[in-house]
Design goal:
A hairpin with a 2-residue loop joins strand 3 (about 60-65) and strand 4 (about 70-75). The chain has helices spanning about 75-80, 85, 120-130, 185-195, 210-220, 240-255; strands at about 5-10, 15-20, 60-65, 70-75, 90-95, 105-115, 135-140, 145-155, 155-160. It is extended, with a radius of gyration of 26 Å. A 7-stranded mixed barrel has the order 1-2-6-9-8-7-5. Strands 3-4 form a two-stranded antiparallel ribbon. By secondary structure, it is an alpha+beta fold. Among the domains are: about 5-25 and about 60-165, Ku70, Chain: A, Domain 2, CATH 2.40.290.10; about 180-200 and about 235-258, no CATH class.
Length: about 260
């Protein structure tokens, strides 16, 4: 793996030099975009909108439109804006992880200590485990400030980027039901169904089955076979009320288990 950021964790007055690595990879199939007429690959070019000519990466800069004129920014400008945040993951506080709603979580990364920081890294990792807390901090990567959570998983400290509060849209415009009268027996039946479907979570039991099915279809088409089109049947329940539907759901689960 290749490090995508190098800096340090700020833990009080202790700086722990670290490298940041992506913790995820895509499971999507690598599909190319083609011209429908002759199946030639589609290419995207970075084009100057005035001249129509292609621009090489090394000649592209970033700019901010300030009153109709662009102020061009260099890598040095981004660092000068806040040099300490550009190189330090500054832990500002420690909290219980359950206090952070799942909607805020974004992208996970692995933190690897550099040689000079191995002992301090291990100390922070073990202290997080013993306290049961996660560290909340911020840093700058790719010219953008990010909020993050530091949490130990096994022997590695995982940095998970989280969104700022202002990045979360409010659901005020959605038609969401408020207070609804629910009959006690309906609630009892719903709780029973949840109990019947409750198990120990094992992430490895969940697979990307769609990509596998799509790849199977691709192999069939490559061999000149015409894949059969499955018929989607929408089954409408004959039950008229919610209670009957809940009871039917429990009965189905019981039949499958027997």
């Amino acid at each position: 793996m290749r490090a995508i950021w190098t800096g340090a964790i700020g833990f009080g007055l202790v700086n722990i030099p670290v490298r940041l690595f992506s913790a995820t990879e895509s499971s999507d199939l690598d599909l190319d975009m083609l011209d429908k007429k002759d199946h030639s690959k589609i290419r995207f070019k970075r084009v100057n909108e005035e001249t129509g000519k292609e621009v090489a990466w090394e000649n592209i800069v970033k700019g901010y439109d300030y009153n109709g004129k662009y102020v061009v920014l260099t890598d040095e400008d981004f660092e000068k804006a806040s040099p300490e945040k550009s190189k330090i993951i500054e832990i500002g506080e420690f909290v219980d992880e359950h206090q952070i709603e799942s909607i805020f979580f974004e992208t996970p990364y692995y933190l690897e200590p550099q040689k000079a920081g191995e002992k301090a890294y291990a100390l922070l990792r073990e202290a997080l485990k013993k306290s049961g807390k996660v560290g909340v901090g911020n840093f700058i990567m790719r010219s953008k400030e990010s909020l993050c959570v530091l949490k130990p998983i096994g022997n590695v400290i995982v940095l998970n980027k989280i969104r700022f509060a202002q990045e979360i849209r409010k659901p005020d415009d959605l038609n969401i039901p408020g207070k609804v009268t629910i009959k006690p027996n309906e609630m009892q039946m719903a709780i029973a169904l949840i109990g019947q479907l409750t198990g120990k979570f094992d992430i490895s039991s969940y697979k990307d089955s769609y990509s596998a099915a799509l790849l199977k279809l691709i192999h069939a088409k490559a061999k000149g076979k015409k894949p059969a089109t499955p018929q989607l049947r929408v089954v409408h329940s004959k039950a008229k009320d919610l209670m009957s539907q809940l009871k039917a759901s429990l009965d189905v689960k019981k039949r499958k288990a027997s």
